[in-house]
Amino acid sequence: MNDDALLKAEDLCRSYRSGSDTIVVLDRVDLAVRAGEMVAIVGASGSGKTTLLQILGTLDAPDSGRLFFRGRELTDKNEPDLAGHRNAHIGFIFQFHHLLPEFTALENVMMPGLINGRPRAALKDKARHLLERVGLGQRLYHRSGELSGGEQQRVALARALVMDPALLLADEPTGNLDAASGNRVFALLHELSRNLGLAVIMVTHNLELARAMDRCLTLADGRLQADRPLSDPDATDNIAT
Fold first, then answer.
1. Residue-wise pLDDT tens digits, 151-204
2. If DSSP states are collapsed to H, E and C, what string results for the chain?
3. Which long-range contacts (CB under 8 A, 24 or more apart) does 231-239 make?
4. Would you say the pTM of this structure is higher than 0.85?
5. Measuring CA to CA, which residue among 175, 154, 191, 194 is closest to residue 241?
6. Confidence bin at 233 (pLDDT 50/70/90)
7. Which of 15, 57, 123, 207 could form a disulfide with 113 if both were Cys (CB 3.0 to 4.6 A apart)?
8. Using one digit for the tens of pLDDT, what is the confidence trace for 119-144?
């Protein structure tokens, strides 16, 4: 594991009870991600990709194992501390954008900062800048129902960035979009990662997008497999669709 890792997971385990059976979802998972690195996680449906992402984002807790952020252990923290950590350091994007329909694009992007008590004027300027950066400078005052699916997801991306996170966790962020819109959202993620030094961990079924990231890991049988650069001609042998 890398000492300079932004995020490091050690021996993460997670299982669920189903009747009298125990279903192992994560079995001693290790992962290290550096600042500015883009990592794809692929695997069959139901393999535990979303569970892993939720644990990495401290939205769920492992049964055992340890999670570190910039060398600070998180697995021994209480929920208020974890909520503060998420708000300060992690942005989330999901397959469905979860925008608040009664608010404008600008207000939706501002919302995390407003909840955090940030000054409204400065926050408004920042939200406007982010929306301009994702190509929605002319749509600031449109409500989510007035935006296309791709535009809504770009608003969600701007919202995920408004608190200046070091890590962005994306769960099938292009899965509900047509190919052109999905490629546009991914291109923005790639640009922002490179320009801002943002680490990105993305769960996806889209192999084309996975191949465009720095690393692609496969989650199968509870383990992350083949931590291998995609430039390796054999790497795609271990990618599940």
1. 888 898 889 988 889 999 998 877 777 787 777 778 888 888 888 889 999 998
2. CCCCCCEEEEEEEEEEEECCEEEEEEEEEEEEECCCCEEEEECCCCCCHHHHHHHHCCCCCCCEEEEEECCEECCCCCHHHHHHHHHHHEEEEECCCCCCCCCEHHHHHHHHHHHCCCCHHHHHHHHHHHHHHCCCCCCCCCEHHHCCHHHHHHHHHHHHHCCCCCEEEEECCCCCCCHHHHHHHHHHHHHHHHHHCCEEEEECCCHHHHHCCCEEEEEECCEEEEEEECCCCCHHHHCCC
3. 236/207, 236/211, 239/42, 239/207, 239/210
4. no
5. 175
6. very low
7. 123
8. 889 999 999 998 988 888 899 999 98
Task: Please identify which residue in the block is written with the tokens 């954008």.
Answer: 97
98: left (phi over 0), alpha (psi -120 to 50) or beta: left
Locate 14 and state its tokens. Answer: 């997670």
pLDDT at 238 > cutoff 80: no
**Looking up tokens 């009747």, which residue turns up?**
19
d(CA 90, CA 163): 8
Cβ neighbours of residue 215 closer than 8 Å, sequence gap 6 or more: 37, 38, 39, 40, 227, 228, 229, 230
CA atoms within 13 A on the CB side of 60: 18
